[in-house]
Design a protein that fits this description.
The chain has 33 helices and nine strands. The chain is α+β, with helices and mostly antiparallel strands and 753 residues long. Among the domains are: 203 residues, no CATH class; 110 residues, Acyl-CoA dehydrogenase/oxidase, N-terminal domain (Butyryl-Coa Dehydrogenase, subunit A, domain 1), CATH 1.10.540; 125 residues, Butyryl-CoA Dehydrogenase, subunit A, domain 2 (Beta Barrel), CATH 2.40.110; 62 residues. The longest helix is centred in the middle third of the chain and has 31 residues. GO terms for molecular function: flavin adenine dinucleotide binding; long-chain fatty acyl-CoA dehydrogenase activity; medium-chain fatty acyl-CoA dehydrogenase activity. Keywords: FAD, Flavoprotein, Oxidoreductase.
Length: 753
């Protein structure tokens, strides 16, 4: 290699410094980083996103067959479920529901038709989970788990043709019930620390001596585990006798284990936060399997972590975001209706400003989560598996679901606190911690993964530099580093001036498409993308590998990246839906709330960056007058809250795709009362003007007609039915009274009488 002044005299010492500054990547870390794809997150990391690219992404759509499934079997399934009985009487889905799920191939939605599955798109999968979630968390989890991280997904992507032919038809038709064993007592978020083992050895299988693995494991929190017939298992493979090569420690491996094999033990059920989907532990003691039980065969030994991360990149973008989106929309529909029909001080509670604020938050989050769900599904439909975005979606969808459910509970008050068949909020509230915890705990995802993985994968040059540093050939590594490093320098300098100019002008001249009333929001995101890219580069430059340990700093960067994606999704939805003017209040709320978060996180990053000189420079460039964290104005809050306080197309768009017609169930009664109350609003105004509360008196005095009085009575009766709550006889709640019927429970009021 000929002499190069720049490479040999300038880059070489930087290359040597980078070797020391960046810690070596473990195989597990490298596999996690290489799993999945980058997508719109890469544009956001450039500091200059190409909005035409975002707007050109084809919206996710359904085929006629998928639409028919949603309006047919999915509706039928929802109608079969009594969620109170499922959770508090049966503690399971009844046998006829299980049979219906299997017969209609709900467990094989993603399996191709050639193997007997439905061959549905990721968006169809998402829509099915969304609708079922609005009826029953238990049913939704039962359906979604086999279609996300599990044997089916792994077999389709990594399985041999023989394995696919053997197992996929049974999974598609429900003859095989799958689960996946990853979490163990020793390994939760740090799955790489599992101690479950597979020792390569010779053994007897079906009467023949064969090369295989002897497995020992203990797994817990395994959804569908108690009823599974086919267990996907993650373990660490070892070859102490060198039967297949020179290495002894071969790494994480995944295999298929029929649960009827000798040595497999299926434990009793867990009860996760009073949710009754099937979940429990399992064990294996000296379970022997042949090599062809490894997913992908012997050549896939040690590749399990990358396989799992690839599957998660798709699954985390669908299942829990769909459930969370459904939950937020459900809260919007139910809480808006309840706030309209419930009165205090003779005024609907939804008209109080103190209630408008959480109502607006519920409506705004419902709009944003469904926008992000749809945008993510559009990538998945195009066979893109955006790893970082899937992490963002799981984290923020479940966290924002928690916010909306808490707000909905507060507004409903006692109606949502008193449990019983008439309570349509309680079980959703109890289910939230499960969503927060599973598929990667949110604390870990926020503090380590979103920015930690995103900064490497989505950054235009960092991964190239890291690969150059770790290259086994030092000369080639230096040459590659020289190329990528100086491109990185040019990129950083450009972003410095870009961020400075856009920040000092308030984004006035930042690039944006012609998007009508939303054009200014694109300019703001262009401004904040540049600020984010600049701050990220400065943090990486000054901290190097130490940034990995600065979890709070990493979390703040992750929050900014997440907001940029979620706000992009909201703008994309606004455009895809034809710029619905009536919905603009939701977009206004979303953008103002997200910009407030970005402003705060940027200020926090600069206040806590260890290199204070760099922090001062960044503050001068990006926030010379300090953060501007105003958030939605009172007028925006008022307009956004109104979107769910009245029936109509806006409310229906916000809550599209839910199942809410449940015969004479609590939600159907709420919807009827809501429609009656809003239809009779003009009659109520006449009575209010006459200062009369009783409809019969108003009829007598001629304030309203007899027909209007009848309508008003029907509305009042419907409201009274909705605000009722359940009570139970003592023996219905406590075995004490069932065992000793002579014991009496007397209330103070009855005792006094």
């Amino acid at each position: 290699m000929s002499f190069s002044f720049r490479r040999d005299l300038i880059t070489r010492p930087i290359f040597a410094w980078a070797h020391k500054a960046l810690p070596p990547m473990s195989d597990t870390e490298r596999e996690a980083l290489e799993a999945g794809d980058v997508w719109w997150d890469a544009d956001l990391f450039t500091g200059n996103p190409d909005w035409s690219k975002l707007l050109a992404f084809a919206p996710a759509t359904l085929t006629e067959e998928e639409k028919a499934f949603l309006s047919g079997p999915v509706e039928e399934l929802c109608a079969m479920i009594d969620d109170w009985k499922v959770n508090w009487e049966w503690r399971d889905l009844p046998p006829e529901v299980w049979e219906f799920i299997k017969r209609n191939k709900f467990l094989g939605m993603i399996i191709p038709k050639e193997f007997g599955g439905l061959g549905f798109s990721p968006y169809a999968h998402s829509e099915v989970v969304r609708k079922i979630s609005s009826r029953s968390v238990t049913a939704a989890v039962t359906v979604m788990v086999p279609n996300s991280l599990g044997p089916g997904e792994l077999l389709m992507t990594f399985g041999t043709k023989e394995q696919q032919n053997k197992w996929l038809p049974g999974l598609a038709e429900g003859r095989e019930i799958p689960c996946f064993g990853l979490t163990s007592p020793e390994a939760g978020s740090d799955a790489a620390s599992m101690i479950d083992t597979g020792i390569i050895c010779k053994g007897t299988f079906n009467g023949k001596e064969t090369l295989g693995l002897r497995l020992n494991w203990h797994k817990r929190y395994i959804t569908l585990g108690p009823v599974a017939t086919l267990l996907g298992l993650a373990f660490k493979a070892y070859d102490p006798d060198h039967l297949i090569g020179k290495e002894e420690e071969l790494g994480i491996t995944v295999a298929l284990i029929p649960t009827d094999l000798p040595g497999v033990s299926i434990g009793h059920r867990h009860l996760p936060a009073m949710q009754v989907f099937q979940n429990g532990p399992n064990w294996g003691k000296d379970v022997f399997i042949p090599m062809d039980f490894i997913i992908g065969g012997q050549e896939r030994i040690g590749q399990g972590w990358k396989m799992l991360m690839t599957a998660l990149a798709a699954g985390r973008g669908i299942s829990l975001p769909s459930q969370s989106s459904a939950g937020a929309a459900y809260c919007a529909r139910a809480t808006g209706a309840y706030a309209r029909i419930r009165e205090q001080f003779h005024v609907p509670i939804g008209k109080f400003e103190g209630i408008e604020e959480p109502l607006a938050r519920i409506a705004g989050i419902a709009y944003q989560l469904d926008a992000a769900r749809r945008l993510t599904c559009s990538a998945l439909n195009q066979h893109i598996h955006p790893a970082v975005i899937s992490g963002i979606m799981k984290l923020h969808a479940t966290e924002r679901l928690r916010i909306t459910v808490d707000d909905a509970m507060d507004i409903h008050g006692g109606k949502a606190v008193i449990d019983g068949p008439q309570n349509y909020m309680g079980n959703l509230y109890r289910s939230v911690p499960v969503a927060i915890t599973v598929e990667g705990a949110n604390i870990l995802t926020r503090n380590l993964i979103v920015f930690g993985q995103g900064s490497v994968r989505a950054h235009p040059y960092l991964l190239q530099e890291m690969n150059a540093i770790s290259d086994a050939d030092p000369k080639k590594g230096l040459a590659d580093f020289d190329t990528s490093f100086w491109k990185h320098v040019g990129h950083a300098l450009t972003n410095t001036f870009r961020a400075w100019g856009r920040s000092w002008t308030g984004g006035m001249f930042a690039p944006a498409p012609d998007a009508g009333a939303a054009t200014g929001y694109y300019r703001q995101l262009s401004r904040y993308s540049a600020a984010f890219a600049l701050c990220s580069d400065m943090a990486l430059l000054t901290l190097g590998g130490a940034l990995k340990r600065k979890e709070m700093l990493s979390a703040r960067f992750g929050d900014i990246l997440s907001e940029l994606y979620l706000l992009s999704a909201a703008l994309k939805r606004w455009e895809d839906e034809g710029r619905q003017e009536a919905d603009f209040a939701a977009l206004e709320w979303v953008m103002a709330n997200g910009i407030r978060t970005i402003e705060n996180r940027l200020a926090e990053v600069m206040a806590n960056m260890p290199n204070r000189f760099v922090a001062v420079i960044l503050k001068f460039l990006i926030q010379p007058l300090g953060a501007n964290p105003l958030g939605p104005s009172d007028k925006v809050v008022h307009r956004c809250a109104q979107l769910i306080l009245a029936p109509g197309a806006v409310r229906d768009r916000l809550t599209e795709g839910l199942y809410h017609i449940d015969d004479d169930g609590p939600l159907a009664r709420l919807e009827r009362a809501f429609l009656l109350v809003t239809a009779n609003e003009s009659i109520e105004k006449k009575m209010h003007a006459a200062k009369i509360r009783d409809w019969s008196e108003a009829v007598k005095k001629g304030v309203i007609t007899a027909d209007e009085g009848t309508k008003l009575k029907a509305a009042h009766d419907a409201v009274a039915l909705v605000i009722e709550v359940d009570d139970f006889a003592p023996e219905a709640l406590s075995p004490i009274y069932r065992k000793q019927p002579d014991l009496k429970q007397t209330s103070p009021d009855r005792a006094a009488s």
